[in-house]
């Protein structure tokens, strides 16, 4: 009873803090997301809890899946983007080339929890694969992210600036946590001239139920979101758009 009372008091204290200071609320939200708090699938981080998390649903396989855009992080959690003088510049996103150096381009993730576990009766790597066009998925959602950040995204042939890219990495690996990395060589052109070019890459990590297709989608989606955002906050990218606007 005493333990439950202490937990209730702690919960009430956090609630009062969030109501008093919305900024603290955003920080608490990020902390929950990064460590898996509030996730009904998250397991306790003790050794016993991790062993429980290793037990995979027998009927679940993340092979030949359709790619899904799944975000747990809000765009409002990202650093603000400077749109001064560039918010009305029409931008179109063109095709991306798939330049990933990986044996099977269908692979977007893998679970290696038991691959090197001598105590496991099922020592193998579990793969996450898709028949979707991965580069096309990344291009379409680069467009989505830029639009959400406040840029004026237009259709094919309507842009004053065109953004294209080379996909170098889009992969998530799961051991004790899910870790995804996206790497993109992004290029912006105007009037046939390159006005911006840069390599961008961001990683994302989360906890959650083992070999969950949705958890793979989350870390991949959020790593892509943050990769595109890393270009948007570059002063050189902003300056290039300003020149194109003249």
How would you describe this structure to a colleague?
This protein is of the alpha/beta class. It has 2 domains: 35 residues, no CATH class; 203 residues, Rossmann fold (3-Layer(aba) Sandwich), CATH 3.40.50. It is built from 6 helices and 7 strands. Strands 1, 2, 3, 4, 5, 6 and 7 form a 7-stranded mixed sheet that branches. A hairpin with a 3-residue loop joins strand 5 and strand 6. Helix 1 packs across helix 2. The chain starts with a helix and ends with a helix.
Count of folded domains: 2
- What structural class is derived from the secondary structure elements? alpha/beta
Shape: elongated
Main β sheet profile: 7 strands, mixed
Q: Roughly how many Å is the radius of gyration?
A: 21 Å
Which residue ranges are poorly predicted, with pLDDT under 50 across at least 5 consecutive positions?
A: 1-20, 22-59
Q: What is the tally of helical segments?
A: 6
CATH topology of the largest domain: Rossmann fold
Helix % is: 25-40%
SSE succession: HHHEEEHEEEEHH
CATH class call of the largest domain: Alpha Beta
Instruction: Please give the number of β-strands.
Output: 7
CATH superfamily of the largest domain: ABC-type transport auxiliary lipoprotein component
- Arithmetic mean pLDDT: 82
Percent of residues in beta strands? 15-25%
Q: Oligomeric form of this entry?
A: single chain
